[in-house]
Amino acid sequence: MFGSNYYCLVAGLREYTLEADAKGFDARAIVSEILEGVSRADARQVRLLYTYYDCEHLAALHAGRTVSEGLGNLTPEELAEELRSPRRLPDAVQQVLRAYADPEGEEAAEIDTAQRFEKALFGAYYAVCEKQGCRFLRAWSAFDRTLRNVAAGVTARAAGRPVEEVTVGGGDVVDQLQRSSAADFGLRGELPYIDAVIAAVNDEANLVEKEHKIDLIRWNESLELATFDYFDIAAILSYLVRINIVARWMRLDAARGREMFDRLVAGLDGRKFIEQE
């Protein structure tokens, strides 16, 4: 079955330009417009991409921290209700929530509740993504999990903490992170970006600069994974990944956010692809 092509929607993405000071950038409004313009099946993929942020907020709420409205699908109030009685999130994520809410209950028999809540939560989230029919979402979630595991592993090693406490999921990379004593965890041949991550984590005393360098790796990978996707859901998801990075930097550092927004707009002239058809 062929996927949907969104010629007009993708071409219109370049209309999301800002004034010189970037005021008016509204990531949630962009997501809402995209959800209205894609098929029901593709909208599910978009929402699953944003379930990551729901999981971030759930982890914060579970730890007793407050959260504000963000990029996720659900409001803070809805997420608080999910912790008590999950029903809106993917089944695997709901299972984790039920297990931790009732460690003696039926769901807890299949979940290792001795591990940190967020480790189980994100493990379930990434497992759901890996089973999706959307090639981009599968590839992106695998990359994102690996990148976060590498950064967490480098940080844990520097702090003298066991790496297995901070990695999510399993697989060869996780095994290497947990077992290897090499400076690059023996992963240089497998992960071309590992030196950049290690350098960012170890060399940058400035946390903002460190995060910026790691987000540039994410940015480039989102483009790479959709190199030959111009008008399908992969192109839209790739765009949304970068929208999320821009939104994050608008909150963290306005100048960095503007720089990333300019990159986004510069690469979004969808009309040139239509002219090639």
Structure explained in plain terms:
This protein is mainly alpha-helical and 277 residues long. The protein starts with 6 loop residues before the first helix and ends with a helix. It has one domain (7-12, 24-276). It has 13 helices and no strands.
Q: What's this, in brief?
A:
This protein is mainly α and 277 residues long. It contains 13 helices and no strands.
List the helices and strands and how they pair.
Blueprint: H1 7-12, H2 27-37, H3 40-62, H4 76-84, H5 91-101, H6 117-130, H7 135-159, H8 172-179, H9 194-203, H10 207-225, H11 233-252, H12 254-266, H13 271-276
Helix pairs in contact: 2-3, 3-4, 3-6, 3-11, 5-6, 7-8, 7-9, 7-10, 9-10, 10-11, 11-12
Key terms for this structure?
single chain; 277 residues; mainly alpha; 63% helix; 0% strand; globular
Radius of gyration: 19 Å
What kind of sheet is the major sheet? none
The oligomeric state is single chain
Domain count: 1
Strand content: under 5%
Low-confidence stretches: 15-21, 269-277
* Whole-number mean pLDDT: 86
Structural class: mainly alpha
- Helix count equals 13
Shape: globular
Counted beta strands: 0
Helix and strand pattern: HHHHHHHHHHHHH
For the record, give the distance between the C-alpha atoms at the N and C termini, rounded to a whole number.
Answer: 22 Å
Helix content: 55-70%
